[in-house]
Amino acid sequence: MIKVLRLRKGVIAIVLGIIFLIAAQIMSSKHIDGSNIVLGFSGGFLILGSLIFLYPILFAKKIDNEGEEVELKPAAKEPLDGENVA
Question: How far apart, in whole angstroms, are the C-alpha atoms of residue 22 and residue 72?
């Protein structure tokens, strides 16, 4: 199984992005200056949150049931003749 992912920071960044997006839309409808800046912060937080979500998935280590790491690269390109491949 893949190690348990800790995604609390990613969730917080996504939630902040959504909150800033709502604030930017409200500011835009009321014609308040600075709504573009808040919209930029919203996009930044959404991008940051998505990168935080992807990081542990891309760089996770595979572990077996006993908790030991498993080597993901094969040792040889072809299986040896004497070993049973299953």
Answer: 44
- Nearest-10 Cα torsion for 58, 15, 9, 6: -60
Instruction: Say which amino acid occupies 63.
Output: I
pLDDT digits (tens, 9 = 90+) for 21-71: 999 999 999 999 999 999 999 999 999 999 988 887 777 666 656 666 656
Amino acid at 36: N
State the Cα–Cα distance between residues 46 and 7, nearest whole angstrom.
14
- Look at the chain and count its residues: 86
Contact 27, 38 (CB under 8 A): yes
- d(CA 6, CA 59) in angstroms, rounded, equals 13
